[in-house]
Amino acid sequence: MYNLVLLAARPPEWTHEQFIAWWRGDHAELTYRLPGLRAWRHTEIDAALEPRSEGWDGVSVLSFDSPEDLRKALASPSGPRPSHRSAT
């Protein structure tokens, strides 16, 4: 199993609740269409345990059978796109 782990952050103008509703609604519909996707687990982050973890709204783990399947999903039109923020 090959996993892609993503941290998710909302646009600055959205509330956490707006982001979670979109993430579990419209965005989920696109994610389920990824070619080769075997499983998608996601959880919302409602509080950081330490300052360096503040500002993230969720974590996603997308699972694929092979590195080739993961590459195909990333290259597909509905593949994940980079966030506007960095993890530093």
| Total helical segments | 3
The fraction of residues in strands falls at: 25-35%
Characterize the biggest β-sheet.
3 strands, antiparallel
Strand order of the largest sheet: 1-3-2
Radius of gyration: 13 Å
Q: What is the typical, i.e. mean, pLDDT?
A: 88
How are helices and strands ordered from N to C?
EHHEEH
Structural class: alpha+beta
> Which word captures the global form?
globular
CATH architecture: 2-Layer Sandwich
Q: Uncertain regions: pLDDT < 50 for 5+ in a row?
A: 83-88
Roughly what percent helix?
25-40%
The number of E-state strands comes to 3
What does this structure look like?
This protein has one domain: Alpha-Beta Plaits. 27% of the residues lie in helices and 25% in strands. It is built from three helices and three strands. A three-stranded antiparallel β-sheet has the order 1-3-2. The radius of gyration is 13 Å and the shape is globular.
